[in-house]
Amino acid sequence: MKEYLRAALIAAIFSFPLICFGQQGSGGETGSIRSSAAYSEILLRKTDIQADIVAFSADYTEANPKIIDLRFELAALDILVAKVLAVKPSETGKLTLALGKLIVRKAELDTDLARLTRSYNGEHPDVKRARRRVEIFDAAIKEVLR
Predict the structure, then answer these.
(1) pLDDT by residue (tens digit) across 50-87?
(2) Burial call 102-128: b when 16+ CB within 10 Å, e when fewer
């Protein structure tokens, strides 16, 4: 699982400049994407997480499981928002509120899976169930963005 967390964090670090400076999408035209319901839903969750990190940082160290989970979920959302920003401006009709909720829920499930794999091995029934839930949400997101 450490490899999964490391990969998610690395991907988030490298996608951060692209996300911040709007260099995703065709021709840098991200205005219609950034005004979509899906992007707004994801941005709302990212803002909640960032606020929680600031609030909890006063009382907890970076090694605290709560902080680790929040940072993991933020990294997962950064990866998923990159997929949203890669949508062609002509296909912004796909970026509905339901898609935003699917993406936010998938990031939460990814975080749950990461938490479980820190405690159990990959063959534990809870880990298998969590992995299957992540796969189901991932398939739904891919279907919408297809």
Answers:
(1) 999 999 999 999 999 999 999 999 999 999 999 999 99
(2) bbbbbbbbbbbbbbbbeeeeeeeeebe
As a whole number of angstroms, the distance between CA 138 and CA 136 comes to: 5
- What is the rounded radius of gyration, in angstroms, for the C-alpha atoms of the chain? 16
13, 123 contact by CB (below 8 A): no
User: Measuring CA to CA, how many Å separate 110 from each of 69, 70, 75, 96?
Assistant: 10, 11, 10, 21
Is 67 within 8 Å of 56 (Cβ atoms)? yes
**For every residue of 11-27, which 3-state class applies, written as one string?**
HHHHHHHHHHCCCCCHH
**Are residues 60 and 67 in contact, defined by beta-carbon separation less than 8 angstroms?**
yes
Contacts 24+ apart (CB under 8 A), 137-143: 137/102, 137/105, 137/106, 137/109, 138/106, 140/102, 141/80, 141/83, 141/99, 141/102, 141/103, 141/106
Q: 22 pLDDT exceeds 80?
A: no
Chain length of the chain: 146
